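Students often ask what a 'structure token' actually looks like in practice. Rather than answer in the abstract, let us consider beta-galactosidase, a protein of 941 residues. Its sequence is given first.
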Amino acid sequence: MNNCIIINAQRPVAKDENSINLSGTWHFQTDVQDIGVSRQWYAKKLTGIIRLPGSMATNNLGDAVSINTPWTGDIVDSSWFFEPRYARYRNPGNIKVPFWLQPNKYYKGAAWYQKVVHIPPGWNKKHISLFLERCHWQTTVWIDTVKIGTQNALGTPHEYSIDSLLSPGVHYLTIRVDNRVNEVNVGVNSHSISDHTQTNWNGITGKIMLLSRPRLYIDDVQLFPDIEKKQVTAVISLKNLNTAAVNARLELTAFRGGWNAVPLTPLLQDIRVKGNGGDMVSVIYPMGDHPLLWDEFHPNLYAMQVTVAGNGASDKKAVTFGMRSFTSNDQQLLINGRPAFLRGTLECAVFPLTGYPPAAASYWRHIFAVCRSYGLNHIRFHSWCPPEIAFAEADSAGFYLQIECSSWANQGATIGDGNPLDQFIEDESRRIVKTYGNHPSFCMLAYGNEPAGKHMTGYLTRFVTSWKKRDPRRLYTTGAGWPIIPESDYNSTPDPRIQAWGAGLKSIINNEPPRTNYDWSAIIAKWKHPTISHEIGQWCVYPDFREIPQYTGILKAKNFEIFRQALEANGMKHLADSFLLASGKLQVLCYKADIEAALRTKNFGGFQLLGLGDFPGQGTALVGVVNAFWKDKGYISSKEYSRFCNAVVPLARFSKMVYLNNEALDVPVELANFNEKPLKGIIPLWSVKNAAGQLLFAGKFSQQTTIPVGNGFQLGVIRQQLASVLQPSKLTLTVSVAGYENSWTFYVYPAGNPAIAKDIFITQTFDSETVSQLNKGARVLLTLKKGALKKDKGGNIAVGFSSIFWNTAWTHGQPPHTLGILCNPRHPAFSYFPTDYYSDWQWWDAMSHSGAMILDSVQKGLTPIVRVIDDWVTARSLALLFECRVGKGRLLVSSIDLLSNAGQRPEARQLLYSLEKYMESDNFRPEATIEASKIRDLCRQ
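Now compare that with the structural description of the same chain:
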């Protein structure tokens, strides 16, 4: 390299005299009538007061929420506006909306912010800029009475160059912020702007500063690591405001592990920078013989200080970076040449305390720590881009990030059709890459979420192709979800998951008997690029009403209050915690099935959960095992979750989850190993225990010399006769490999059961013969066929095995409509049908052959043997089994069909036997007495 010499490195020194912090009190005025520009408010003193950084809402400014609040975001279920059940929540003073978390104040429109600034004499004739870290969203700036310009970036700071207008002395700085969807329609449901999550706030957050730089200064530094050549190419943009060219010296020094570490060898280069503009300089910086690489296991960071000195002044810029390569090879993602598997979740801009992205390092550090504890290594930022501090904390935590250009061009917006959004995406992507592109955590980029538009494929093809040529530091795809094109570096698609949007009861988990021997190999085989499954899961849990007091900020859980009052009105407030725990156990079972299917798929790229945490908008989608504050809900710990979601996960391919004791287990076992290196000399162990923890069977596989990094590696096959399991049993298979464990519950029933001693009248119709038997004092089991219930008695409730997918409000009532069962496992009715208090695999058959009875239509306050947990919106008392006295007889009503095709349904046969044993015993003593007409009225005639 020409004119390069070695010098002694100097540590960077902060110079406060080069910045003015504008945080604090500002003058303020809302512009409801949009008259501020025409009446030159920038030339007048504003009368209100606001504190920045912050929003109008954090300052308790704006309008009270009402039925006329002009929300930003689709309301798919508009029943709140007219249904009688919501009438009391539409009254002034008691407004409560179920769509999303509710802000204390709301304002959409222009607002003006004004501050007096004092420019010191030392800033004379320097380059001066205004830095506004996060604005929402369009800003216009005036210095005194001169308009500087307008910006509408959503994912990056607004920066204004104001060199000639800020002479030493006193000046008025006026900023107009407009949070309306302007001519650039990014999509009203985009998480960058929507009330569904972060809120459509008006304000300025993060750092708010005036910055002073010499007339020759560093405008930008982009660092391009090359781990094979062990070097970094620094592309440096220099600005020279002098009219004449300047001879200058450029100095680069890398620091290993941050500024307090020992520097690497500095590098100097003499340059000449053109006047009235500037130059772009490219410098190759050697990183030594053994540079430390960055990945999820070792997030090694470097800092590069760049200094330019010339014309009697100098300027410095410091950049954090990592030596890493994030690439792909055929269908596999690679980190530093090693197979990688993304275990990700979405961050949907959910900030219940502030309503906007926090700028505190501790906040983002906590999120990444929680995600890591649950076994994750990846976060996708859904239709928005986080602030700088989030990237910095992801760098330190070793997280791979997918960033999106602030748009969800759907439901009223399109991409590629010649609208202003097309140019906005181009500009926004450039801004995002320039601002955050050096962060090693910034591994993936997409335009945004689930696009629409007649010409979207062509536009997004150009988007991907262009970025692949411009910047090789990350991978690029079109949009999250679709379209799939050959030009993308990786595919994002919802195809590989156990429940598709609109699948309802026809999905794998709801339509097929439970098993764990499927994967997505056939789906991804047609593509030549890595595939990441888009938004898997979406499994709901019942609201945790104990969470309500945690909403101490600007957003309140009024939606939770509505749901809690509905439960109380139906007499089940005391069951709220039980509903949470039981539905939570089912939710975890569903997520485990989703995640393990992905891990079983050879050469799969990974998955993006929706989500580890709750999504409070879109009608309230409680899909998280942690809440909106990233706290667990009490039914699974991060340690338990990370058994099936981790870098190393043992996997078992069960062909079914229910066995008879004249059968044998025949279960292939494999390993997904996405650790930092191969596992050597391991001896995989397996064991089967019963519900009491007693060891029934155990074994080990042959010693493995090496398990490479990747997945689909066979450990062996468990073959075990089950003849010694004499009683109906819940069993747990545990596989242990190199300190990692994973478990699966399965059930074993006797191949034959003894005859029932006492006569029990079993029927599928409540006819005159049934009534006659009851009047004679008989014990009667009424087991209804699926579809036998009247619509208003529960026949219109779609029951499936899984919990609710996303939520019924946003999906137009997509089935299933329920959240599993709740029962007392010690009830004598289950003496021969082992169960926990929640749905496990043995309940799949029952849920697939049943309807949910509305108990209040039979008798209010009736306590069933098996409850069905209803959608929290309707909160009805539902059941699969209840008992009562009718006439002189005793009746057990089952809305599970226990008879049809019983020869192929071992769970139904066993449950029927257990119920018959209960009914023949003295324990069968129903307390409630019900008229026969009420039972008859349940069923279609």
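One point worth highlighting: DSSP finds 13 helices and 49 strands in the chain. Ask yourself how you might have guessed this from the sequence alone, and why that guess would often be unreliable.
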